[in-house]
Structure formats: C-alpha cells, structure tokens
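In this section we walk through a basic example: taking a raw amino acid sequence and producing a predicted 3D structure, encoded as discrete structure tokens. The instruction is simple. Fold the sequence below.
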Amino acid sequence: MGATRGTRVDVRVIAATHRDLEAAVELGSFREDFYYRLWGAVLEVPALRARREDIPLLVEHFRVRCNREDQLAVDGFTRQALAVLEADPWPGNVRELERVVHRAMAVRRRGVVQPEDVRLPSLRRSPAALAATAGVAVSVTAATLNRYEAEALRLAAAGGGVRRGELMAHCGISREAARRTLASLVGRRLLRRLGSGRGAWYALHTPDGTVDEPDEHASLIAARRGSSLPAAPMATRGPR
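The resulting token sequence is shown next.
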C-alpha cells in the first residue's frame, strides 16, 4: 500500500462464506463487481444440517482427537446421545458440533457419553417451541421438524403464506436450502404449494385437510413485511 510502482505477486485467494452470494447480490447487500472478482472454481459444501449422516463420523473423529489431546478415555457415544446430536439444526455447523462434543467428553472423561452429557446452547429454541408460536397443529415430533421448517410454518401462519425468498432472507439460508425446506413441508402435507415458478408461495394445511389461503388481513400483514403474496378478497376453504 502506498507504493509508487506496481509489484508482481503470485497468490491464490480462497474465500469462504455461509451466505448465498447470488441472493445477496440480487438484494443489493453484496457488491456485484466484487462477486465476479471472487467467482472462479466454486465448491459448495452443504451445511451440517443438510448432511446429518456425517454427524456420527465427525463425532468419532473428534472423539479420537480429544482423547489424544486432552488425555481422556472416552470409548464412544450411546445411540441416544448421537440421536440428540443428529436432531439438532447446527446453525454453527461443524465447529459448533466439535465444541459440543469436546464439552460432553470433558464432562464424562471416561466410559461412554450419555444424552445428559450433551449440552446445547440454552438460547436455542427447540423446533417444537417454534412450531407452537406459529399456532399450528403439527403432528410431528421435535426430532423430525428442524429449525427452518418450524420457522417456515411460523411465517406462513403469520402472513397467510410464505415465499422461498422470504424464508431465505429471514433465516439466512441458501436458495437450495430453502427449496428443500419447503419441499419437505409440502411432502408431509404441512404446507401446500400455490402458483408456479417465481410466483409460487406456500400456505398452511389446516388439520381438516383444507388449506389456508390469505385473506384481507393476511395480505395486509404480508405487505407490511415487504412480501407480495397474492391478495384475495376472502379466505377460501374447501377439500383439495
């Protein structure tokens, strides 16, 4: 910096982010010219919540390393303890999992880690609590409803429906993660997809098998949130 002449260097830049940069560019929160300067060989590594089958392998890797570095004698994790780890959405990804595993092993020190040894951040709200705030009767357990699915249900209940872009912006997840989240809820008949393409939106299924469509009040709420759900003069309900 501040030199009067250029200096040739041979470097390779490796950048990493958990954000969907294409969506950020579209929203104007990331500079488009900088995006194209960085764009090259792009490797997309799914979040830990999207590859839960890797959790037992990672736990075993961390167990071996922590035993060696901290002189512990932990033989493994019970199936129940692993189930607790596999059910969590892991917003902090692999680094958070490593810290939780390390803490559980430090508590147990030897033998086999039990479910009560596994402590997650107390500020994290459970999927069941998120679903309850939506006022939705959901016939699934907390282990089968992750944080983003529960949040999608809450948004749909609050505004008469939810769009993929709204879920991306609210939860800070990628377009593909939002698509998988909404597709999962549609497959379990918790949401119903209405419309197609970029105009598609997702409304709640009611317990009797009907679908809630946005009424005048829901459309007003959606407008205040900056959404553009289609307005309807009255809520229409009927067997689908």
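Looking at the output, two observations stand out. The chain has ten helices and four strands. The radius of gyration is 22 Å. In the next section we compare this with other chains.
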